[in-house]
Amino acid sequence: MGVERYKDKTMAESVATSEMNHEAAANDRVMFGFWVYLMTDLLMFAVLFAVYAVLHGNTEGGPGGSDLFSQPLALAETLILLTSSFTCGIGMIAARRGNKNQVLVWFGITFLLGLAFLSLELQEFAEFIREGHALSSNAFFSSFFVLVGTHGLHIISGLFWMFVTLVFVLVRGLNRHLVRKLALLSLFWHFLDIVWIFIFTIVYLMAYV
Amino acid sequence: MSKLSHNTTTQPKAEHGTTVSYVIGFLLSLVFTAIPYYLVVNKTITGNSLLATILGFAVLQMSVQIFFFLHLGRGPKPLYNVAFFIATVGIILVVVLGSIFIMDHLNYNMMTPQATTTKLAQDEGISQVGGEKTGACAYIGANHQVIMMKGKITPLRTESRMCDSLTFINQDDTPRDIMFGSYPDHEVYGGETKLTVKSGHPKTITLNQLGSHLFYDPLQPDAAGYFTVTK
After folding, report:
1. Are A194 and A132 in contact (CB under 8 A)?
2. Is pLDDT larger for residue B2 or for residue A205?
3. In angstroms, what separates the C-alpha of B139 from chain A's closest C-alpha?
4. In this structure, is residue B64 part of a structural domain?
5. Is the Cβ of B54 closer than 8 Å to some Cβ of chain A?
6. What is the pLDDT along chain A (209 residues), one digit of tens a residue?
7. Going by DSSP bridges, is the β-strand pair B176-180/B211-217 parallel, antiparallel, or unpaired?
8. Within an 8 Å CB–CB cutoff, is residue B37 touching chain A?
9. Domain for residue B136, yes or no?
10. Could you read off the pLDDT of B75-94 as tens digits, one per residue?
11. What are the angstrom distances between the C-alpha of A141 and each of A69, A137, B22, B96, B185?
C-alpha cells in the first residue's frame, strides 16, 4: 500500500515528505529530551517539598507560617502565574500558525506577568528579611526560602530565556527552530506553574489548616 | 518561509490543543484555585478533611495543567513521556511520603541511650532494667484528665500521686502540640519531649517524675497548665 502511494508522487514530493518526517522525528526527540529534564527537575522539587514537610514545624519558638504568610498575596501570585500560563499557551498556538506579531504580543504579556509574579515574591522575601527572618533563622525558614526561592530562580531563568527568544523572533522572524524553542519554553513555563500550585497549596494554604 | 508554514500547519491539531481547550483549561484552573482558597479562608471545614480537600484540589489542578496545557498523552505513540511521568510520580511519592514517615519517628530514634531506655521502660511499663530502677511505674494509679478546647485548658492545675496517669483530650478539630516546661523552654517529662494530640485521639502519660510540671501549646503559649506529682 505504501508503494502504491509513493508511485503517484513526484520525486520532489517524496523527498520533501521524508525530510518532513526527519524533521518531525528530530522534534520529537528534542521534546522528549526536554521532558526528561523537566521530570528530573520535578524530582529535585519533590525533595525540597519533603524537606519542607518535615521541617516546617521547627521554628525554635519563633513565628510559623500561619503568623507570617499573607493569603491574598499568595492568591494574587497564583492567579498571575495561572494567567501567564494561559497567555503562554495562546502564544504557542500563534507560533504554530506562524503569526509573528501575535507571538510577540502573547509572549510579551506572559513575560510581564512573570515579572509581576517575581516582584511580588521578592517583596514578600524582603519583608521577611526586614522583620529579621533569614535563611539561617531556623529550619522552617531554611526550608521555606530554599523551596520557594528555587522556584523563583526557575522563574528568573525562564524570563531570561523568554526575553532572548523574543528578541530573536523580533529580529529574525519565526523559523522552525524558534517555534521549537518557544514550544520548549512553554513546556517549561507550564511546568513551573504546576510546581507553584503545590507551593501555593502545601506552603501557603496548609499553614492555615 | 512558505515551506515553514506548510510544515507547521500540517501537524495534527489534537496534539497541541486549540484556543478553546486553553480557555477551558484556564477557567477550570481558576475554579480549582478559588475553591480551596475559599475553604481555607472561611474555615467552612477544618482539620484533616480540609487538608484532604485542598490536596485533592491541587491534584485536580495539576491534572488540568497536564491535559489542557501540557497535552500529555496526545503525542505520537508509544507514549514514552507518559511512562516517564508516571515513574517520576512514583519516585516522588516514595521520597515525600517516605521522608515524612521516617522523620516522624526519628525523634524517638535520636534520643540518648538513657532517654531511649526511659522511654521504652515507660512505654512497656518496665520498672527495672539490670537491677536498676528506670523510673517507670510498675502499676498505674488513678487517671486524671486535661481537656483542651478553643485554646482553653481545663483544669489548669491537676493534683496527682506518683504513678497516676494523665490524659490529654483535644476537643478541637485541629491537632495540638503539648510541650513540657515553660514557654519557650522545653523539658523532657517521662521520656516525652512533645505530645501531638489529635481530636478523638487522647494521649496518656504516666506521671513518674515528682514535683510541679508546667506544660503549654507552643503555637499558643498562653494555653498552659500544670500538674503536681506527690508521693
Report:
1. no
2. A205
3. 35
4. yes
5. yes
6. 444 444 555 555 566 666 667 777 888 888 889 999 999 999 999 999 999 998 888 877 778 888 889 999 999 999 999 999 999 999 999 999 999 999 999 999 999 999 999 999 999 999 999 988 988 888 899 999 999 999 999 999 999 999 999 999 999 999 889 999 999 999 999 999 999 999 999 999 988 88
7. antiparallel
8. yes
9. no
10. 666 688 888 999 999 999 99
11. 12, 6, 37, 19, 20
Grid coordinates belonging to B134: 528506670
Decide which of B109, B126, B156 is a domain's last residue.
Answer: B109
Residue A129 contacts residue A81 (beta carbons within 8 Å): no
**DSSP three-state, residue A208:** helix
May I ask the CATH class of domain A30-208?
mainly alpha
Q: How far apart are the first and last CA of chain A?
A: 63
B20 and chain A: CB distance < 8 Å anywhere? no
Rounded Cα distance between B103 and A47, Å, is 13
Residue B173 dihedral angles phi and psi, to the nearest 5°: -80, -25
Q: Per the structure, how many domains does chain B have?
A: 2
Nearest chain A alpha carbon to B37 = A205
Closest Cβ opposite residue A190 in set B40, B65, B100: B65
Domain boundaries, chain A: 30-208
Interface check for B88 against chain A (CB to CB < 8 A): the answer is: yes
- pLDDT tens track for B119-166: 677 666 676 766 666 666 767 778 888 888 887 888 888 888 888 888
- Choose from B8, B69, B174 for mutation: most chain A CBs within 10 A: B69
Overall pTM > 0.80 = no
Q: Is B31 on the interface with A (CB under 8 A)?
A: no
- Contact at CB, B58 and A198, closer than 8 angstroms: yes
Its domain, for residue B27, covers 3-109
Cβ B162 vs Cβ B230: under 8 Å: yes
Instruction: Give domain status of residue B138, yes or no.
Output: no
